# Entry
Amino acid sequence: MSDPTKPSLDVNRKYVRLVEKRPDGLVEFEFSISDPELYVEMLLPEAAYEEFCKTNRVILLEGSRPESEDGSDWDWNLHEATHQRFR
# Structure
């Protein structure tokens, strides 16, 4: 029996948020399953990225990742760390 207090987990819903198409031919993106707020950062060559999205039938998320509500210093990703945060 399922617990009604726990949110449902739908492993068939997969999300991709495009971060950057880099000059070296790699595509930087965030991939999540069920919950777009919990993601992994990935890099793939552009053709592999397109195939990855097609194979996983992802939902493309528009825009950049929303800012955290608490403004925590710990809320950053690798793209931000290498391009702006620690320069």
In short: The mean pLDDT is 84.
